[in-house]
Protein 1
Amino acid sequence: MYLIGLTGGIASGKSTVARRLYEHGAVHIDADQLARRVVEPGTPALAAIVEEFGTDVLRRDGSLDRAKLGERVFGDAEQLAKLNAIVHPAVRELSGRLIAKAEQEDPDAVVVYDVPLLVEASVDHPFDLIVVTNAPRRAQVERLVENRGLDRGQAEARVDAQVDNTARLAIADVVIDTDGSLAHTMSQTDELWHRIVEERRARA
């Protein structure tokens, strides 16, 4: 198995790169989806969140009101740290199981673990390669405004709340520049895939 850690700031083109690698045949594991799964009703993580933040973060059906919880922790480092201490270990455990399952099903699989908080959550899976998508702040803000309907102030706050991109770039084995056209992003991703295929062929 070949394990890729894919990370990047919000609206930096990470999903586009993940989708392209999937089209090439990679197994895609999305940390954002796992973060939703680990707080579904009946999970230990949801019980811990309710114990920490109270029942008012639940909807009537017993599911987590992510928007309400987000309002509670956004901009409050202490509250966010408490939430992360519950969610991050649960996601790490589930992702570890899914990566192991992918390897069991296909020992030659290329697995892309798409994880926005790779730096912040200290994700320590044994990656063969760490890929970082990189776009300037202005591009991230524009994409959030145009594609996700945020107003400019909200978009800037979302971008600025994340870890500085310097920390991501410091751990990158490969940086994909997503500031240009979609075709340029795709071509860099295709080159990466071919590089991985050649590396694995050389190892065999």
Protein 2
Amino acid sequence: MAGDGARTSRSFAIILIVHLAVLVLWQVAVDAFQVPKFILPSPLATIQTLGTTGYAWGANTLVTAIEILGGFALGAFVGVALAVIFSWAPLLSLVLLPLFVTLNMIPKVALGPLFIVWFSYGIVPNILIAFSICFFPILLTTARGLREVEPDLLDLVKSLRGSRWTLFRKIQLPGSLPYIFSGMKVGAILAVAGAIVGEFIASERGLGYLMIQVQSSLDTPAMVMAVVLLTLLGVALYGLVLALERMFVVGDARQT
């Protein structure tokens, strides 16, 4: 346990040092080559935009965070639920899974105007766009995890007259957790992209909306700051998934 903690702290320190080194190099390069601010602002010029009240950073960041988290949570729930249903009903999987594959091929940017027509402006259509992008990887990886259970374990539970619920709870679900979290990590990245796609198409709030507004005036520092905040939101969501994976997957492995 102590060794794992030391390795985690060392890895975190290395990651932090690398990111700080990139920021320092960025600042030095911009100052040394006198890069115009509208082309590439320095980190200090980017951070200074946080003190400008006209951007409403807090409110816009909160809106985008709600869209990302809402789309991801909905995608994770629907993806895992459908995968479980498909594992219990192979015929339904045979009928519907190819349809989901086809629907996933539709460019999500093309769905944006339709979502706006159906659901109007606001947070809801952006949540749905984020959901439409992130749920499919979770569905596929979870379905694969539920299928790739050792046949001997399944035969053992069936020979002991275990119910389908017992089979799922004791064998399939624990065995598929690594697959579920792998899909969720991909979904966390895609949820950020989905929320921004929605805000770029049509929105009245959010970081994507703010980027469109400041683009016309070549306010590059504000655009870069919006990108930084989006990145931080994505990192936070990805870190949450990693923490849950460590809790449920790594923790269970240690107990066994």
Protein 3
Amino acid sequence: MKQLTFYFDPISPYAALGFEALPEALAGHSVEVTYRPILFAALLQALGQKGPAEIEAKRRWTFRQVAWLAHTQGVVLDPPAEHPFNPLPLLRLAWACAAPEGQPGDTPGRWVVEQLFHHVWRGAGADANDAARLAALRERLAPQQDPSSDAVKQRLRRETEAALALGVFGVPTVVFEGRLFWGQDALPMLRAALAGDPWFRSGAWEAASQPRPGVVRKH
């Protein structure tokens, strides 16, 4: 069975769309997916970048594009009342739904992740951090751990730091055999890798990221 890791933050509409499209991308393959919630804002801060929603023109384009992608995928995507919002309550709830680190089941399962994405992106435009909605979500998920505990908070921090160390710079990112596939639109590329496309054994993956002769780079 092939092993994949899906890094995500429920604040990202692209992560929501990638999550919805993942089963089709994996169809026909024996695959086990590990879901790892991470704090997207921490990636941006560490890399000195702004999120799409922090740049007004980019924010407008992002929501137009994700509306189109949802239309083409045939899925529901209702932006929450406020975006960006603080995703920490949802991220901590996700890790709280998993067993303590090092024990069997110490990452959240697909159903939990689905509930988080639906809470944000299928909430008919409701506030993702509305206290009553968060309480109802917590009751439905019945976490194994206290989402406000130091153990859960530290787990989220460690997972985000580990993702950064691995080279993750955005969400969603899928890791397969040491290769990082970033974005919902990278799923066809991931499917080709799963199918054993010889391109991935040809050295093209490595060569594509190397500086080209004659290209002047500013420092």
Protein 4
Amino acid sequence: MIDRETFTELMSGVCAPVTVVTATTADGRPHGSTVSSFASLSLDPPLVSFALDRASGLLAHLQPGDRVGVNILGAHQQELASAFARRRQGPGSKFDGVSWTVRAGLPYLPESAGWTAGRVERHVDGGDHVLLLVCLEEAESTSAAPLIYARRIFGTHAPLAVAS
């Protein structure tokens, strides 16, 4: 088996979408976290997946049957990605000072490159993470350039130049 450092270095070269996954607590408070493991899983039914660290505070609010929102960040939203990636210490919320609204009963970050919402179908054990399978109920995409993460830096997608 490879060691942690080798694995981390290998995976840093894999481009990943940057999303902020959101939920609403039972008392109506917004909860969210940056997630870069978002992926499509199935067309029929429309399923996506993402992974959360077992220590994530968001995980407790995303049990099977719970609703979840996924804000697919645009290239102009790197500050949001960083803000939602930090573990919150002390009072307050990651949403403090952030422009957000409620959409379909879930925290929504305007100006995202895409947005979707659905229900958590199930959890799958993934070592130090839990893989969540989500059946989508709503979705919207835009033409905004997506935010991606690779080699420990943010970037975006650009078409390759055609060689002549």
